[in-house]
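Researcher: Structure prediction, please.
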Amino acid sequence: MSSDDKPVLNQSVERAARLLGLFTREEPALSLRELGERAGLTRATAHRYASALRRAGLLRFADGVYTLGPRVVELGSIALAGLGVVRLAGPHMDRLAEATGQTVVLSVWDGEAPVVVRATDRTDKLVRIVIAPGSRLRPESAQGRVFRAFLAQAPGRVAERIRRERVTYGDTNDGIAAVAAPVFQADGIVATLAVVGTRVAVLRDETAITDGLRATARELSDVLGHVEPAEAA
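Model: Predicted structure follows.
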């Protein structure tokens, strides 16, 4: 391939990625017109790209709308499997869920918000909080605040306290609360670990939950090869 062909190829890849990125949890199905308008493409160009993505299994067409295809799900699971923290977190999360009696969630940062990549709930409980992998959490959630505190070194007393204490609490209007802590790999944050339960249950056992969560996040960070600066000196 000549150097003159490379910009065209790059543009094709970028357009295909842009089309796939238009699908969200809130809008999982889009018409050809919507794809073209939102991607800034003519109807004919949008149809050409959508057809190519269908042949690759990345899009599916039914009832007049497009949805993400089965190949996307397969690639997503492969991507998650490639994250060392997801592979290694399971036993640590199981022990924490057993000790606290609550749901334990592992999240990674997608550039704008935390995304759940693994969750362990207590199947023996009458009332369970189930959080599906792939769920996108609010940026202002406890997990989101932890990520921002370490990724962007956000200013302010709240962020400073998170960096110092390595844990923070957050709740929602529907009575659900979470305590979140950072998980480190090498020199930076790679994930957050959180204990999620009803506000009443989390506040009742907050000290035990916080201590257990902080210790588990530290153990997982150690397994991932993180060394605290004072230890490395």
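Model: The first strand starts at residue 29 and ends at 30.
Researcher: Thanks, that helps.
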